[in-house]
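Reproducibility note. Readers wishing to regenerate the assembly model reported in the main text can use the exact inputs given here. Chain order matters: entities are listed in the order in which they were concatenated for prediction.
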Amino acid sequence: MRVFIAGVDGYLGWPLAMYLTRRGHEVAGCDNYFRRDWVAEMGSQSATPIRRMTERLQAFRENFGVNLEFIKGDLRDYNFVWNFFRAFRPEAIVHLGEMPSAPYSMLDVHHCVFTHTNNLAGTLNILHSMRDVCPEAHLVKLGTMGEYGTPNMDIPEGFFEIEYRGRKDRLPFPRQAGSWYHQTKVHDSNNVTMACKLWDLRATDIMQGVVYGIRIEEMGDDERLVTRFDFDQCFGTALNRFCAQTIIGHPITLYGKGHQKRGFLPLRDSMECLAIAIENPPEKGEYRVFNQFDEVYDLTALAYKVQEVGKKLGLEVEIRNVENPRRESEDHYYNPDRERLTALGYKPSHDIEAEISVILKTLSKYRQRIEARTHALIPDIRWDGSRKEVRFLK
Ligand code: USQ
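Running the prediction on these inputs yields the following C-alpha cells for the assembly.
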C-alpha cells in the first residue's frame, strides 16, 4: 500500500516509516522539523542523538534497500499538501504532524493559539486535499485518550448507546479535554467526523494512550536509525521521563498525589496498532474510533516499577511527589475499553518491565546528554498560566 506519513521526523513517525517499509508498504512522508525546534525552545534535547534528515534518509536507504520519499513542508500550506498527494497518490494517510504537548499549549496565549491553528489547519488541509485528490484514501488520524478526560464511568471506543427521554441513539461519547492541546484533538475529531459524513471519506481516529520506549527491532544496531527520546517537561511523556530521571539519579517526579491513571503502550505496540489500522481500512464514509493502549497504570505503581527495574541494573533512584503544575484529577476511576484492535489481531505485549529495562540500558549510553539538561526535568509551566518551578512535597 502507498502510505503517506505526516510528521515523519517525529518520535512515532520515524519508526513507523521503518516498520511499514518492512511490512512491504511504499512509504512517503513530510515534516517541517518543528519538533526539533520546540524541544530546543524548552532548553532541552533528545537523549538519543538525532541525525539530520539527509543522514537519516541515507541510513534508511542502506538498511531497507528503498528510498523513503521525503519532502520538507508545512501542513498549514494547502498547496503543499495538495501537491504531495497529487504526486504520491496515497492509499493511506497517517497524520502524526501535530503539536503533541499539553504543557507547551498551556504556556501562554501565543502557544495556545499556535497549537490550535497548527493542529486544526493541518488536519483541515489534509481533509480537503483528500476530498480533492484521493477521496478513496484512508485517513489514520492520531487522536488521544485524553480527549475523553477521566469520567467516573467506563469509556467506550468513541461512541455509546444512550437513552434520553425515552428515545435511544448511538452518539459520540462526551469529550472532556484537560489542556488546550487535548482540546485540539477534540476539535479534530469533530472535523474528521464531519468530513466523513459530508464527503464520504473514510477515517480511523486513534485514541492513543501514553507511548513509551526507545527501540523497535527495525532500527537494528544502526545509531542513525534511532528515534528521538525526549525527557523535558513538555515533550517527555511520564514513563520516558521517569527512566531519564533514573539514569542520572534525579528523583522521579510524581505530580500531586500521583494516582492519575492512564493507558500506556510501548513504541513497538503503537507501530503494530497503526499498521493494523492501515491494513484494515473502514468502509467509504465511515468514521471509526480505536482506543489504543496496552494496559492502564496508576502513575505511582509505574514509578515503583521503574525504580525496581533500575535497582536490578544497579541504578538507585528515589520517588518524590511534587506540586502538580496541572489541573487534573489525581485519584480517579479509569476504565476504558480496548477491543476493536484486539479483534483485528493486536496482541498487547504486556511486558512493561522488559521494555523499561531496554530503555534504561539504551539510555545509559546517553547519560551525559540528559545530565547536560537536568533543568528540563523539573516542570515550571502551570495550568493557571503562571511559570514557577514546582516544589517537592515529601
Ligand atoms: N506526570 C507525572 N510526572 C511527570 C510527568 C507527568 O506525574 O514527570 C503525570 C501527569 O500529571 C499526567 C500523566 O503523568 O497525569 C501523563 O502525563 P504525560 O505528560 O505523560 O501525558 P500527557 O500530557 O497526557 O500527554 C501525552 C502525550 C500526548 C498524548 C497523551 C496521551 O504528550 O501527545 O496525547 O500522552 S493521554 O495521556 O492518554 O491523553
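We highlight two features of this model. Residues 2-377 form a domain with the Rossmann fold fold (CATH 3.40.50.720). The chain has one domain: 2-377.
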